[in-house]
Amino acid sequence: MTFSVHGLAVSRGIAIGRAVLVASSRVDVAHYFIQPDEVDAEIARVRAGRDAVVEEIYRLQTSISRMGPKEAPTELAALLDVHLMLLQDEELVGGVKHWITDRLYNAEWALTTQLEIIARHFDEMEDAYLRERKADMEQICERVLRAMKGGQSPVLPAQRPSRKGAQQDLLLDDTVDVPLVLIAHDLSPADMLQFKQSVFAGFITDVGGKTSHTAIVARSMDIPAVVGARTCSQLVRQDDWVIIDGDAGVVIVDPSPIILAEYGFKQRQGELERGRLQRLLPTPAVTMDDEKIQLLANIEMPEDAQAALKAGALGVGLFRSEFLFMGRHGQLPDEEEQYRAYKKAVEGMEGLPVTIRTVDVGADKPLDASVHDDAHLNPALGLRAIRWSLAEPAMFLTQLRAILRAAAHGKVRLLIPMLAHASEIRQTLAHIERARAQLDRRGDVYGPVQLGAMIEIPAAALSLPLFLKYFDFLSIGTNDLIQYTLAIDRADESVAHLYDPLHPAVLRLVADTIAECRAQGKDVSVCGEMAGDVTLTRLLLGLGLRSFSMHPAQILAVKQEILRSDTTKLAVWAQRVRTAEDPALELAGGYV
Ligand code: PEP
Ligand code: MG
User: What pTM was computed for the model?
Assistant: First the structure.
């Protein structure tokens, strides 16, 4: 039966594919595609895991048989029998084989997928005793997973293997080449990073806001995504056909052939539009009144530099270095590893500037708790970003040395997140000096860097003279600036309707920052999601912004808006929008 689920539209486009449900409690289990010639070995891995658990149970049974009824109640022996029986269960064994053979899932993924299907069947059982066997099934699967953990877990392949080559008709083709969409209650940015190398055609999560980091990474992958879809991961079943409408924030489950055809058409229209935008690639981003606009890229990993160049970015306006620190199981990257990563990004940009932001962890970008524990009352207001760096000087100095060394290979700008206090600014500058002195003592080569601050706390936007005194450039982080101005958790879907880039207070802080920087002749850019939102391009141009940093995938659409704009006309209109009681209404009226 067809039904739809509504969430937040976070990454544009239409995706049509089979649902792959990833339970958040099991995100630690590796999910990757194997090669067709690895099927037998993968099945053997599960079999070995299962045999190990069977052995374990036999051993237990033997020791129990030597005990008296007091130490080993008869129920225990009966339970072990049930576990043995479940381990041979045809639905489990056959299902796991199916996911490995037909879908090329790795063994752990196949096992957890089949467990979810069986768990649902148990939930639907009328008999209470049988329903309770679900817990036993979960237990034995966990034991098999643990038994399998001894073996090595290969890394994700960059490409999903294909046995058939060309993509075939969606409804007829039910093999390994079917597009897949990922559905989860929640995905951490680190999980997203892992999936970034994978092949999903779209993402859906139950939780998250428009500018949560999961949404940001989905946008950077340029694939349709819906977040904040509430109970979607419970409503959709493994392998259901699903349509993601990333423009409307709608998920359609089990669509009828008519709906499928309609969305297939929309999908092709979107592809045509992208093709048309590609023609703008060689055109410089200059307005009708000859204002040159700088379009920069936001990147998460050094490899993203390629996409930035391909999209025609004139540099990297934000390299979120914290992604190098995520999913490391407590082991932070050392100076050498970081240096190599920054150098790779710098060299990848072929002489164009790269703005490296120092580590910005916390809130919805958690690190392993052994390294950074922000499970406090309110992590968004806690020890995150520069606050954490200043609290961990050894880690901070390591990062600064790595960035300074990478600056010997090209133009590097150093960007500091979440500053608010003069004391934090002075401490940061002292650390940079200390890092330089350490490199001098070691005789290491390093390069000059321009120094910038992010304006993402209202206190910073209201202390511009202080920031302009110490920094060469400012970058407005509107994602956090909106969060902190409006007291809205950017990752919380229940208040997503109040997260408003067009609130007059937000516009005033953004407009004042741009105007003050321009008056002082300092560079200013916007690197929050507002910069890549085409519905806001004209407004930002009208407010005087000349440098926009966004995901590479958004650059051409923003350029198209720029080419159609006249900043002198926009300036008058933008002031009207900024001072309106309801700027959204004024904006919707368009400019004349
Ligand atoms: C921002 O806050 O706008 C920003 C660009 O930083 P992040 O989204 O990584 O917090
Ligand atoms: Mg931020």
Answer: 0.78
